[in-house]
Amino acid sequence: MALPLPPASNLHSVLLVTKSRSLGPRLVFHYPPLSPSAAALSGAKDPSWFRHDTSTASAGSGSSNSDWESSTATDDDNDIEIGSRTSGGRGSGRTITGTSYRDRDRSKLGNDVWNKQETIDEDDPDDENGEGGSLDRRRGGDHDWDSVLGFKTDALEKMLTPSKDFNKRRFELGVEGIVFVGAPMFVREDGLWKKPKRRKKKRSDMEKLEDGDLVKNLTGTDEEDEEADSPEDKPVKPKQEPFVYPEGFEPGYGHGSLSSAPSGAPSEVGSDARSNSTSIDNNPDMTMFNVVFVLNPPALEYQQRVKEMYDNVTRKYAKALKFEEARFQYVWKESKRIIDIKQRAKENNESLTSTWRKIIATSPLAKSIAVMFDTISNDQIAHIHFDASFNTSFQIPQADSTPYLPNALEPQMPGLWLTTSNVVLDEDESPMTQHAALLLLEDTETLIKDLGGDSGVNAAAIAFYIRNIIPTKSLLKISKRHDISANDMEYIASHLVYWRRARLIAPLSPRDTYIVSPNADFSSLPAAIPAYAQRFPTLPTLPKMLSMLSGTPRPFRNFIPTTEHRDAYMDILAWLMRGGWVTQLRTFAWMRVTPEIKAQVAAEMAREERIKKSDEARRELLSDNESITESLLSDKRSSLLSAGTVRSSTPLRLGRRDRSAEAQDNEEMHHSTTLSPRVTGSTASGYRGSPVRASSDAGSTSSQRTTIALGSSQRPESPSRLAIRDVKPHRPSPLHLQPTSPSRGSVVSPTSPAAPSPPLPSPKDFKHSVVYSPQKATSLEARWLEKIGQTFEDGSTAIDPSPPKNNEGIVFGVTGKDLRENWPTLLKHLDGRHAIEDVATREGMKRKRVATLFNAVKDRGWLVVVRHW
Amino acid sequence: MPGRAIEAIFYTRFHHEKGSRVLHQVPSGSITESKSPSALPEPLFKYSSITQYLIPTQQFCDRLLTFCVNHHRVIGYPVCIREGKYSRNEFIFNFAIVIGESEVDWACYGEVVRKLGRLLRGLEEQGGFLSREEVGVWEDDVKMGMGKDDEDHSAFGIGGGSKVYALCEMVLEDLNNYAECMIPIDDSNTINLKLFPTRPPPPPILAHQVPLLTISLSSLQTPVSSDLTLNRVLPYINGINSISRIAQLADTDLSLTRRAIQHLVYYGCLVLLDIFSFGAIYACTAEIGGFVVDDDIKDECAQYVRVPRLRIGSDARTIRLGSESSTSRDEQNSRSSSSASHYSDTANSTVRTSTDLDAPSKTDTDSDEWRIDHSTLIQLYTSLRQGLTLKNWVLDHLDLLSGIDVRRLVTFGIIKGFLYRVHKYAIATNLNTTLPPAPPTSLQTSAATSTANLRDSDVATIRNTQASMAHHAQQAPQHNAHAQHPSFSLHRPSVASTTSLNPQVTAKQDVPAFDSILPSEQERQNGLPLLKFLDGMHCFDEICTELQTPERVVEGKVRGIGGEGLGLVIQR
Questions:
Q1: Residue ranges of chain B with per-residue pLDDT less than 70
Q2: Which of A814, B34, B190, B420 fits a disulfide with B39 by CB distance 3.0 to 4.6 angstroms?
Q3: Which residues of A, range 149-188, sit inside 8 Å of B by Cβ?
C-alpha cells in the first residue's frame, strides 16, 4: 500500500471475558461503562452497512465531510445522505482525527445514553463528572446492568468464550459492521498458565524496542528473559533495575549476571511448587480469559485495522495479562473482585458510571483496561501499570513520514512529514541511522520527565543523552563529541522514534533548501501561531516564515539575516520540521548521455571490431558459422553500426519504435478523442510506487485505492514496479574497474562481417538518453559513462561535447583530474534515488567537496537534475 | 472480483434433538468429513469449534456473523423463524460462505450472504422451501441409529433431488466464475445475486476542481444515467472547465453538479485536476523518479502530449513554433489561463482537415521528426520547480516545446502523480486570530450571492459566446462578466449583513489596520467576502472561483491588507 492511512483505531469498547469452573462464562468488565449499541456502531443499520446500497440516512454516522458541509451553504439535506454514505471507507480520513471523528459520530447519533463517557476520568474519579452528565445518565442505560453494546450480557458472554481451539489464536467475530477482536488465553492441561520449563531466549532488538521501558534496556546488563511461556509466546518483561523478582521468576540457571540467583533446578522446582500452591490443587478455577476489543472499521480498511489492533495491542496485552496470571493469578483475583463490586452495586441499584468509578479506583486490572481504551481509541500510547513491579506500554505504530503526496481523491493526512529520506532503498545498503540527526518531537525537559520517571543513575544518564541531542548534528557526531557509545545512541534514537518521541531526519543545515510542505496541515495554523510566537517572540511570525520559505527555493542560510541569528533560525527550522510545516528539498540526478558520446563510443567499437575481425580472419578463414553469428548479431546491439538501422540506441527503443509505427494510424485517430491519458488500474496504482517505496509496507491489506478504478477488480500490489527493473538486461557495471579495462564492453560484439567499411557514426544519428542506474548499466551504457569519465581529464579545453544549453566550462576549482578520481564515487549516486545531499555522509567526503564536484559535472551538461522532497 | 474466492458454501440446520448439523456442503467434505469419492481429504476447519457462531442464540440471529477460524473466514447469516408449525416453534438455519481469511474486500460476500439468508427465510415462510426437503432426512437419521455424521450426509447430500443442495452448488460456481448468478426457484421466485466490489467513498467535490473523464462515456450506447444533471454536465467535462464553470455552461445548479461529479468519482470515471493556468506553478513530486525510469509511461506521455502531426511539409514546424510562442506571448498579455491550450485545440482541428487532404506518403520520416524524444520529456518535467511559473518556464523552454501541448503535458504529470500544483494560500496574520472564521450571516449571503453571480455571469456568458468565449478558459469569461457588469457589486453581501458584521470586527480589532484595508464602502463590500478565505486553508483557485475575481486582483487585495504585510501569500 502506497499511502499510509490516517491513524484511526476505530476502537469502541474493551471487554474482559473469563470462563471459570465456578461461574462459567462471565463478562467481567467492559469499558466504557455506557457503550453505544452495536447497531449504532455499524452505522446506519441494515442495508447500508457498506453504504452503497439504498441508504437509510437516519442514523447515518455522518462524518468526514466537514469540508463538504461547510463549503456549501446552499446544499439541502440530500447532501447529508451522501455524507452518510461517504463515511464508510475513508471514514477516518480527511482532516478529522480519530477522536473528533468519533465524537462527531456520537453527537450525530444523539444517543444521549452513552455520550458522556469522556467525563469519567479514571485517575481521579472524584472530581468533575458532576452536573451535566449525571442527569442524562440517570435516565436510561445507566442502570441497564444486563446489556452491553446492545446485546444481552449472557448472550455476549457465550459468544466471546470460544472453544479451546482458539487458544493463542486470533479471535475475530464480526457482527454486522462491528468486530470483536480478542486473543483468548487458556489454562494449560496441567492447570498452569505457563510452561513449567523455562527457556532462555535472547531478545531481539525489535522486542527490546517495543518494550516501553527505555531505562531498563539501557542498563549495561544484557538481561535475558526471566521467563518465557513458550518460544513464540513472549510477554513483556518485568523491569530490571529496582525489580523485586516475583515468586517463581527469579533469574534462571545460566543467567550469570545476577549472582544471588539460586541455581537453576531448585528455583524452577520451587517456583512451580509455589505457583501451584496458590492455585487450587492444580485445578484452577478460571480456565480461560479473553480480552476483546470492539472495533467498527470501515469496510475497505477492515483487514488492516483489525490486524494492527490485534498485533500491536490485543495480543500483547493478553500476553501481559497471562504473564501476570501465571505469576499470581492476577486476572482471576482481580476479576473476582470486580464481579463482587458489580454484584453489590447491582443489588443496591447503583448507577453504572458511579460503580465503574469505584471499580477503576479499586482494581488495577480495570484501570488498565480503562487506560487502554482511553488512549488507544485516541490513537495515543497506553502506559499500563499492572502492579508495583510490572508496567509497560502499548501502541499502534503510526507512519511518521510518507514519500507520496496524496491527490484530491486519496485519503488525506495533512501534517504528515513528506520526505523520501526515510525510504529504505536497498536492503544491502547500510542504514543511515548513525548519520541521521534526531529531531525530538517534544521539548527536551518534558521528554526527560516523561522518560526517566523513576530516579536513579539511568535516568540521569538518559537525561544527559537527551539534552545533548540536537537536530543539526548527526548521531555519530553527537556520540563522538560527548563520548556516548554509538550503540547506546542508536538504541535511544530508535526507542524514541518507535515511541513517537522523535524522528530521524537528515541533519538540519543552513546550506540545505527547505520548502513549505505541500502536505502541511494549515488547519492547525491558528493554534500554531501563538505557540510559535511564545517560543520565538522576537523573530518573524510563523506565517511570515512560511511565506518566506514558500517562494523560490533557496538554501536556508539565505533567510538568516546575520550570523547572530543563525542559532535562532535553526531552532525555528527545527520547530517547523517538527510540525511538518516544511520539508527538505533534496536533489536527485541521472546521467545524461549526449549523441556525441554515443557516436564516439560507436566509432570506437567499430574500430575494435574491425581489428578483431582482421585478427580472426588472419587466424582462421571464414567458417560456416557465419550465419549463426549474423543472427546473433541482430540481437546484439552492435548492429547499430550497419547503415540502415542507425536510429536505435537501445533495444527498448527499437521495440517502441516498431510498435508505435504500426500503431501510428490508430494513434492519429485517437488523439483527438482521448481526453486523458490512459489510466488503468495497474498503472495508476502500480506506477505510483515505482522507484522508491517505503519498505515498511506492513499492511498489505491496503484499503484499495480505488480512486481511478477502471480495472479495479484485479489490483496487485504493484505489477509494473517489478517489471521496471527487469526490463533491462542487467550486467554488473564495469565502472568499478574504471578506465583501465575497456575490454569488458567490447567483448560483447564479435565479428561483423557484413560491414566492410561502415560509415563513421556521426552524432546526429543518435539522441540524448538517460542512464537510469549506473550501478546496473548495460555494457553499452557503461561504455558511454566511461567515455564521459574520460572527458574530464582534459578539463575545460579539448572536445567538451557541447552541453545542450548550459553555460559551458565554468568549473570552480575542480580540475579534470580531481573529477576523474571521484567520478566512480559520485556516479554511484546518480540514479535518481539517492539524494546528492546524502553523498557526503555516505561516502565520508566533505560536503562542500561533493557540492563542487556535483556542480562541475552538472555544468558540463551531463546531468538531469530534479529536486523534490 | 478475484476469481474463485469462495472456498465453500454450506447449509446448517439446528435440530431440536440432534443439535446443529451440516445438511449440505459444497464441495463435499469441506466442512465435515464425507465419504464421497470427490470429497476434500480434510475439512477446512473443525466444525465443532464454530457451531456456537453458526447457530447462535436468538440475540445474534438475523444478523451477519463472520468469524475467522483456521485461516478461513466464515460468513454466515443465521436465521430463526418462529412459528407454531415447527417443533419447539423454531426453525433455525444458516447458509454460510467460506472464503480466505485475508480476503481484502470480503464485504461484498457479506452482502450476498445476507441477501441469501433473507431470501431463504422468505421462501421458507411462504412455502416451506427448506423444511419440506427435510421430511425424510431426520427420520432417516434415526433409522441409521443416530449415525454420527457421514452416512446421512452422503445419503442426501449427493442425492440429486435436493433443491437446496443444487442452490449451494450453483451459487458457489456462479459467484466464483461470473461474480453473479440468477437462480429460478419456482414460478414466482428467482434468486439474483451479484458481488459488488466495495468502493471508497468519494471525497468532497469543490467548485474549483477540474474534472477529467478517464473513460469515454459518450461512446456508450445508452445514456449513462437518468440523472438529468449528469447528462447535461457531461459534454462540458473536458479537463479544462472547473466545476463551477461547468455548472454555468450547462446551466445546472452548482451543488447538483458537484453531486453528479461525485457520482462519477465514486465509480472511478473521473479524476480531479486543478485549474490550469500559465500563472500557476507546478513542481515534481518524489514519483518523478518512476517516470524517468519507466519507458512505457514516457511513450504514453509522448503520445498524449503531442500536438497532432502536420503533414503538409517542412514548414509545419515553423508554423507550430510560431503558434506556440504567440500563445505564450498572448499569455503574458492577457493572463487569461489556458487559452493556449484552446488555441492549440483549435489548431488541431484546422490541422486535422489538412491531414485528410494530404497523401500519407512521407509518413515514416515525418513521424520520426514529430516523435517527442524521451529525454526531452524528462528535461521538461524535471525543470518544473517551485517558484517558477509556468509562463516563465514556457519561455525558458520554447525550443523544446515544439509540437507539445503544454496543458496536456502538465495534466499528464498531475494525473500520474509525479507533478503537483503548488497552490497559493492566503493568510491574514492578525485577523484570523481575532476574527471568527466566517460569521454565519456573511457566509449565507455570500453563498447566495455567489449563486446569483453564477446566474449573472451566465447571462454574460451567453452574450459573449459569439464573440470570443469559446477560446477562453474558464476564468476568463468570469473576468469578462466582472468587467462588463458594473451591477456586479450589487450582488455582494447586503449592507445589512456587512454592518452586522462590522461592529464585531472593529470592536475586537485593536489594530488600526482594518480601516486602511478597505477605504471605500465599495471596496469594503468587495473585500469582506475575502476575509473568510484568509486562514491558509483556501487556495487561490478556490477563492477566485468563489468570489468570481481574477487571481491578480485577489492577490493584490491580500497583499494590500493593512499595508504592512498582514496579508501573506504562502505557496505550497
A1: 1-3, 135-161, 221-224, 309-370, 430-528, 562-566
A2: B34
A3: 151-152, 155-156, 158-159, 162-163, 165-166, 170-176, 179
Asked if B191 reaches chain A (Cβ–Cβ under 8 Å), the answer is: no
Residue at grid coordinates 503574458 = B332
- Per-window interface: A 534-573 vs B, CB < 8 A: 541, 543-544, 546-547, 550-553
Q: What is the pLDDT of residues B91-120, one digit of tens each?
A: 889 999 999 888 888 888 999 999 999 999
Distance CA A194, CA A192 (A): 6
A75 contacts B382? CB cut-off 8 A: no
| Interface predicted TM-score (ipTM) | 0.72
Q: Would you state the cell numbers that stand for residue B146, as one nine-digit string?
A: 443416530
Choose among B2, B285, B379: nearest Cβ to A864: B379
How close is the nearest chain A Cα to the Cα of B139, in Å?
A: 30
Task: Assess B304–A contact: CB distance below 8 Å, yes or no.
Answer: yes
Long-range contacts made by residues A484-493, C-beta under 8 angstroms, separation at least 24?
A: A486/A434, A488/A218, A489/A434, A489/A465, A490/A433, A490/A434, A491/A208, A491/A217, A491/A218, A492/A214, A492/A218, A492/A462, A492/A465, A492/A466, A493/A433, A493/A436, A493/A438
Handedness of CA A532, A534, A539, A543 (dihedral sign): positive
What is the spatial distance between Cα B303 and Cα B318, in angstroms, rounded to a whole number?
21
| Cell numbers at B539, concatenated | 487556495
Q: What would the 3-class secondary structure string for B402-468 be?
A: CCECHHHHHHHHHHHCCEEEECEEEEECCHHHHCCCCCHHHHHHHHHHHHHHHHHHHHHHHHHHCCC
Predicted confidence (pLDDT) per residue in A779-836, tens digit: 888 888 888 877 776 544 433 444 433 343 444 456 667 777 788 888 888 888 888 8
Q: Considering only CB atoms, which chain B residues are within 8 Å of A768?
A: 373, 375-376
Nearest CB partner across the interface for B373, out of A151, A707, A767? A767
Report d(CA A442, CA A583) in Å as an integer: 18
**What letter does residue B80 receive in the DSSP assignment?**
E
Mutant choice from A707, A725, A863 vs B, greatest count of B C-beta within 10 A:
A707
Name, in order, each residue with C-beta under 8 angstroms of B117's C-beta and a sequence gap of 6 or more: B62, B76, B77, B78, B79, B94, B95
Cβ–Cβ contact B529 with A under 8 A: no
Q: What is the pLDDT of residues A718-769, one digit of tens each?
A: 333 333 333 333 333 333 333 333 333 333 333 334 444 556 667 777 878 8
Contact B284 A552 (CB under 8 A): no
Is residue A291 within 8 Å of A161, Cβ to Cβ?
no
Q: Kindly give the residue spans of alpha helices, DSSP state H, lying in A169-301.
A: 205-210, 214-218, 264-278
CB pairs under 8 A between A and B: 351
Return residues 157-186 of B near A (CB < 8 Å): none
Cα separations in angstroms, A382 against A372, A385, A684, B510: 6, 9, 38, 45
B190 at the A interface (CB within 8 A)? no
Angle at A82 between CA A76 and CA A86, to 5 degrees: 145
The full length of chain B comes to 572
For residue A852 the three cell numbers come to 563542487
The torsion region of residue B458 among left (phi > 0), alpha (psi -120 to 50) and beta comes to alpha
State the CB neighbour count (10 A cutoff) for residue B236: 19
CA distance B436 to chain A (A): 11
Contact A832 B289 (CB under 8 A): yes
Phi-psi region of B371 (alpha: psi -120 to 50; beta: other; left: phi over 0): beta
Whether the CB-CB separation of A394 and A235 falls below 8 Å is answered with no
Q: Please name the member of B2, B215, B268 whose beta carbon is closest to the beta carbon of A707.
A: B268
C-alpha–C-alpha distance, residues A726 and A741, integer Å: 27
